User: What shape does this take?
Amino acid sequence: MIRKFAEESTRGLFIMHVNNRELRGWGLSNPSPFPINTFVFNKGATQQVVIDDISYEMPAGSMVPLVSNQHFSFEHPDDLIAWQFNREFYCILDHDAEVGCVGFLFYGIQHPMFISLSPSEIEAMFQLEKIFTDEWQSKDSFQGEMLRTLLKHLIIKITRIAKQQSESYQQFPEDKMDIVRKFSVNLESHFKQEHGVSFYAEMLNKSPKTLSNIFSLLKHPAPSKLIQNRIILEAKRYLHYTDKSAKEIAYELGFESPSHFSRFFKMYSGTNISDFRNS
Assistant: This one.
């Protein structure tokens, strides 16, 4: 079952999937035609999920948040409840940022983040599903705001649970964790144009060395490595999902020349462009 709410005035979109065998399809395993964030609740047994071509085990009774740049498919999609929303429907930037579309769940230090739920928390998810379902019967002017309120309730609830389970948030000051989140948000916005650590450090009012030291303290991959990984991931998506030439992809990803892009891809992916595309 798929329930969809769309706002013409804002282009906001909110979707709920329940026992949907087609969860592998549009917007969930194939490239989405627009950016959309996703919460998935596994109400069944442990199953496999492939996220950006890497296979993970998703425990029974767990949640996983997935950001708009990730491609994924589930082994048993009919055992899932999923909520999807775009930035136009829900995105808090100026306040309550931790429960916004750029908050801890979507741009924290750990990805993917499988969040285990207790029996009472699982029951709360089923109750919330029922409230969402009931609200879809209302066709008045308040429906959009009510769905946004319920989504924020879901995000706050899962954020609290996830922070309790995160060793990093227990060990390190929140201001350090916030730098990681902001770096991730900025990287997602600028990685096609900006490939150097100094650009992102300046955005955070830090020196490149200070930024790298913070990531090292948190035992997180270095900023330079994260930039390289994001560019390689996007390059692989273009090669896998589109017919763009290597030259087109090179300029799309901000490289000065196709040859520079080819060397970069070979160095950080371990294979050359033609072999990757052929495979």
